[in-house]
Design brief:
With 272 residues, the chain is an alpha+beta fold. The chain is built from six helices and 14 strands. A hairpin with a 7-residue loop joins strand 3 and strand 4. 47% of the residues are buried.
C-alpha cells in the first residue's frame, strides 16, 4: 500500500502535476494540503477521470485538505469521513480531514504556520497541536492510524538547514517541538521517515535511499538547488503500521519542473 502526503500550494495551479503524480507514482491514498479552492472549484472531474475517489474539506482561497483514494480498489472506499479537528479554535479553516481507507484511519492535516513567536497565530498553532494530540489519543485507541501532512514544525535541528538562522522564529521553537512530541506520545505514534531511515539520515544527500531529508524549500535564492530546506511534512503512524513500512522517501522530482509546489511529496510504502 502506498500513501503519499503533498502540500500542493494550490490544487488548481498544480493540477497537471497532481495528475502526473497519480499516473507515475500510483498511490493508493494521496493526502493533499493547501488545496486553496472552494468545494465548487475542486477539480473533481479530472481527478475522478484519473481513477480516484475524493473526500475534501474545501474553504476557498486559503488552506483546504483532501484525501484521494484509488477507485479500483473495492475494499478501500473511504468511510466515516470527519472534517475539522475536534477542539481546534476554528474548524472552518479546513485544516483537518480524516477517513478510514483500507483499514487505516487516515488524517490529512495542515498545521497553522504560526508566523512569529509573538503573533496570535503562534498561540493558535500550539493550541491546534494540543487538539491534534487529543485526537491522536482517541483515534489510536480505535485501531491503525496514519496522520500525514504539513506539520509546519521541524522535529529536530537536523531537520533544518541552518538552525542558528531560525533561532527565535517559528518552526524550530522548543514549544512547537514539544507540542509535536506530545502528538506522537498521545497516540504512541512513530515518525515514519525516521523509523525507516534513521535519526542520522543525511540532509545533504538528496540522492540517498530516502531521497532528500527535507520536504520544503523556499522558492527564493535558489534554495532548492542548494538543498537549503526544512523537513516539515511528516507521516505519523501507529507502531504496528510503522513496522509495515518498507520505504519512506521524498519525491524530489515533483519539486522540479513547471510550476512546482514549494513542498515535495512524502511517500510511505507499506507491506501488505
Amino acid at each position: 500500500m502506498r500513501l503519499i502526503s503533498w502540500n500542493v500550494a494550490s490544487l488548481r495551479a498544480r493540477l497537471p502535476r497532481v495528475l502526473e503524480l497519480l499516473e507515475e507514482l500510483s498511490p493508493d491514498v494521496l493526502c493533499l494540503q493547501e488545496t486553496k479552492c472552494s468545494a465548487a472549484q475542486f477539480p473533481r472531474l479530472e481527478i475522478e477521470a484519473a481513477g480516484y475517489r475524493i473526500d475534501d474539506y474545501s474553504a476557498g482561497p486559503w488552506n483546504g485538505v483532501a484525501i484521494l483514494s484509488r477507485a479500483d480498489v473495492a475494499d478501500a472506499a473511504p468511510t466515516e469521513p470527519l472534517a475539522g479537528l475536534p477542539g481546534e479554535h476554528d474548524p472552518t479553516e479546513a485544516r483537518w480531514l480524516e477517513a478510514t481507507v483500507g483499514g487505516l484511519r487516515i488524517a490529512t492535516v495542515y498545521v497553522i504556520n504560526g508566523k512569529a513567536l509573538d503573533h496570535p497565530d503562534y498561540r493558535s498553532k500550539l493550541a491546534f497541536l494540543d487538539a491534534m494530540a487529543e485526537r491522536a489519543r482517541t483515534l489510536a485507541a480505535g485501531g491503525p492510524l496514519v496522520i500525514m501532512g504539513d506539520m509546519n514544525v521541524c522535529p529536530t535541528d537536523r531537520d533544518c538547514y541552518a538552525p542558528e538562522q531560525f533561532a527565535g522564529t517559528t518552526h524550530t521553537s522548543e514549544s512547537e517541538r514539544a507540542a509535536l512530541r506530545a502528538v506522537l506520545e498521545a497516540g504512541d505514534l512513530a515518525d515514519a521517515f525516521v523509523a525507516v531511515n534513521g535519526e542520522e539520515f543525511p540532509a545533504d544527500d538528496p540522492k540517498g535511499p530516502g531521497g532528500p531529508r527535507y520536504t520544503w524549500w523556499d522558492y527564493r535564492a535558489g534554495n532548492f538547488h542548494k538543498n537549503l530546506g526544512l523537513r516539515i511534512d511528516l507521516a505519523l503512524l501507529d507502531r504496528e503500521t510503522a513496522a509495515r513500512a518498507s520505504r519512506v522517501w521524498v519525491s524530489r522530482e515533483f519539486r522540479k519542473g513547471a510550476k512546482p509546489s514549494d513542498h515535495a511529496p512524502l511517500v510511505v510504502d507499506l507491506e501488505d
